[in-house]
Amino acid sequence: MKETTAIAHPNFALVKYWGKKESNQNRPAMSSISITVDSMESKTTINENTASKKHRLFINGKEESDLSRILPSIDYLSKISKSNDYLLIQSDNNFPTSSGLASSASGVASFVTAFEAHYDMDLNLSDRIEACILGSGSAPRSLIGGFVFMDHNNGYKCNQILKKSDWPLDILICITSIKPKKISSRVGMEISRETSPIYQQWLDINNQHINSALKSIREKNIVDLSKVTEENCELMHKVMESSIPSIQYRNGLTQECIIEIMNLRASGHRLFYTIDAGPQVKIICDPKSSEVIKKRIMEETDINEIIHTRVGESPRVVYEN
Ligand code: DP6
Q: What distance in angstroms lies between residue 97's CA and the mean position of ligand 1's atoms?
């Protein structure tokens, strides 16, 4: 029986999306900019499920009972491919799942890539983006390698700003906890949209942050990119924390790590951080400083795992028969 496997990588946002449009189609209310990483990956295999009349999804070997996230993408793609198949989907991550490491983005992007190949579809980028967005608002960015701009004013078009070889920065992910998050991004961002007193400010500043990050990336100016990335990250966490009830994704180790990043910067290293809906700290840095940064963080904080990765590429099909 035909089987197809594809791999996609997570992406980490420098200018973030936190909040959806008031529609039920999972549309982000703002534009975002991200870096697709390498070495961390979601690998998704699809087969036709001939044993029962239902789709089945296994993540890291465990069957998911709730398919509500992936069903809209399946339906969208099935309509285009004119397929009535029920699917067996197996998706594995080589990194912690649901702990703020963008596993939903890489998971959905690898599924869409596998589906397209499995049914010999030749989708255009906007159909791929639509299929991804229905599964996760940040997933379209994982369709593209390097530095990516997702423009909400232009149909969520995703453009590569720079490719991997243009600016080969390193990314160090400081793991502060591998526990799955208690509040999903989806639930959290809806609470923020409805209750945070600074949510409008967050929406209003998006354009300014996008323009400033676009300029710094095009100029490969790490100092300017540091400023806008950290300002955007801090504001997003203020939006989360000012929501009612308050949503806290950072923990004590996250703060310890930030202090050490400031110390490293004060001693001349070129690095900056970003934090998503989870407690992990992602450091983006000049590769020349990576080893010193890792050593210092391990010595000065209680962190004992750092994933060292780099700027990565778009998804690929790895097996088809
Ligand atoms: C903090 O894309 O995971 O990582 O659309 O509900 O799947 P859903 O949410 P998701 O949210 C991403 C939030 C973020 C910021 C970002 O990646 O832009």
A: 14
17 lines ligand 1 (CB under 6 A): yes
- For residue 20, give the ligand 1 atom closest to its CA: 5
Q: What distance in angstroms lies between residue 160's CA and the mean position of ligand 1's atoms?
A: 19
Number of helices (H) and strands (E) in the chain: give both, helices first: 8, 14
Q: For residue 158, what is the enclosing H or E element?
A: strand 157-162
**DSSP string for 14-76:** EE----B-SSSS--BSS-EEEEEBSS--EEEEEEE--SSSS-EEEETTEE-S--TTTHHHHHH
End-to-end CA distance of the chain, in Å? 8
Task: Enter the pTM of the model.
Answer: 0.96
- CA 83–ligand 1 middle distance (angstroms): 29
User: Which residue lies with its CA nearest to atom 7 of ligand 1?
Assistant: 136
The H or E element that residue 161 is part of is strand 157-162
The pair of structure tokens assigned to 24 is 């039920």
Amino acid at 105: A
Ligand 1 binding pocket includes 173 (Cβ within 6 Å): no
Using a 6 Å cutoff on CB, does residue 137 contact ligand 1? yes
pLDDT confidence of residue 101? 77
Give the pLDDT score at 289.
96
98: confidence class by pLDDT, cuts 50, 70, 90: low
What Cα–Cα distance (Å) separates residue 227 from each residue in 15, 39, 76, 114? 11, 27, 39, 38
- Of all protein residues, the one whose alpha carbon is nearest to atom 6 of ligand 1 is 186
| Residue 185 beta carbon below 6 angstroms from any ligand 1 atom | yes
Residue 135, pLDDT score: 96
Identify the weakest region by mean pLDDT among 94-103, 193-202, 247-256, 258-267. 94-103
Residue partners of 165: CB distance under 8 A and separation at least 6:
none
Interval between CA 105 and ligand 1 midpoint (Å): 8
CA 52 to ligand 1 centroid distance, Å: 33
| Angle at CA of residue 201, ends 198 and 203, nearest 5° | 115
